[in-house]
Design brief:
Elements lengths: L10 H4 L14 H22 L20 H19 L4 H30 L11 H10 L1 H35 L1 H14 L8 H7 L3 H26 L3 H9 L4 H35 L8 H10 L3 H29 L10
Helix pairs in contact: 2-3, 2-4, 3-4, 5-13, 6-7, 6-9, 6-11, 6-12, 8-9, 9-11, 11-13, 12-13
């Protein structure tokens, strides 16, 4: 008697799997990132033209032109065109694709902030006039006073650079002396700790008695505000140079000047740049104060002048220029730091 064992075929083995379309989750992410300014601008334009204005707008030159030619919708249209350009251009350029992924979402976020700004001011009137104008008024004021704002920015830049460079040079020199020479540190550090914490704004009456020139007074105030942090951090960096570096240099026959300029100062550069960044931040505040002591131009002078006439749209326009002005200077200092400290990129991340 023979037993025949028959196994039923497995249905799953006979049926071929149906191919499915697998979409990588990050495949369309570069496209969405590049086109995000366009989408945000479309939202802003829809709100601008679809909703009625609830806020009373003061008369200006924009009342004489059609609504589609107002500055704010033109800015939104430019941002929409920028998003389309980045979307199409990233297919041809890999560097543009990388730049679009990093910068385009930030531009889209700024566009949405402007949309919310217009929504709570011009459209819903949640913020009272004249203290909180809408973006259309601010861009109109920015365009109307563009020549005066450019001149004020130039005067502020000249005053800031003169004061900042004078304070940075004095701070580096005094910091190196106090960090390297024990006698200079003994006498200089008590003076630095006693005089340095005094805010520069408290010295306005004293500086005005020393010189009647408003530009000189502003340079002195800015230089003083920069000198203290640069001196402190430079002295700390020079004093904390590794002894092994100095011993190796001495063994190879290096003299004192070589040790200072080729060993101590390069080793202290990270600390020096931290002091320069702190000094630059403080100099922005001191610049606004320095431009209130008799100067005839400058961003701080323009802001106070327009505030006196209750032209708050022009006040916000000057704040936008200040933000772009100070941010550009800070970015340039970052680029200079990255260039000088290329040898630290593998050690310190920034």
């Amino acid at each position: 008697m023979s037993i025949v064992s028959s196994e039923e075929p497995d249905v799953a083995d006979e049926v071929e799997p149906v191919p499915t379309l697998v979409v990588a989750p990050g495949r369309f992410r570069p496209i969405l990132a590049a086109i995000s300014p366009t989408l945000a601008a479309v939202v802003g334009l829809t709100i601008h033209f679809a909703l009625a204005d609830a806020q009373l707008v003061s008369l200006s030159w924009v009342d004489k032109v059609p609504a589609w030619r107002h500055p704010y919708p033109l800015v939104l249209e430019l941002l929409a065109a920028l998003g389309l350009f980045l979307t199409l251009g990233q297919c041809a350029s890999r560097s543009l694709k990388s730049w679009a992924q990093q910068v385009a979402p930030i531009i889209a976020g700024a566009t949405l902030i402007m949309t919310v700004w217009e929504l709570i001011t011009l459209k819903l009137d949640w913020m009272p006039q004249p203290y909180f104008p809408g973006p259309d008024e601010v861009f109109a004021a920015l365009f109307e006073d563009r020549a005066m704002l450019a001149e004020s920015a130039w005067h502020s830049l000249r005053l800031l650079l003169c004061g900042y460079l004078a304070g940075a040079i004095a701070g580096i020199v005094s910091g190196v002396l106090m960090g390297w020479f024990r006698l200079a540190r003994y006498w200089g550090m008590p003076v630095l700790k006693f005089v340095g914490p005094i805010p520069a704004t408290a010295l306005v009456p004293l500086v005005m008695m020393i010189s009647r020139e408003s530009f000189v007074c502003g340079v002195v105030l800015i230089a003083y505000s920069v000198w203290f942090p640069v001196t402190m951090l430079t002295a700390s960096g020079v004093a904390n140079v590794r002894l092994s570096y100095l011993d190796v240099a001495r063994t190879l026959g290096a003299g004192r000047l070589y040790l200072i300029f080729r060993v101590a100062i390069p080793s202290a550069l990270p600390n020096i740049f931290i002091g320069l960044f702190i000094g630059l931040t403080v100099s922005f505040l001191t610049l606004m104060v320095a431009e209130t002591i008799g100067v005839k131009a400058g961003l701080g002078w323009y802001l106070l002048w327009q505030k006196g006439y209750a032209e708050y749209a022009k006040v916000y326009a000057s704040l936008i220029i200040m933000a772009a002005f100070f941010s550009t200077i800070m970015t340039l200092l970052f680029k200079f730091r990255d260039y000088v400290l290329k040898w630290q990129r593998g050690v310190i991340r920034w």
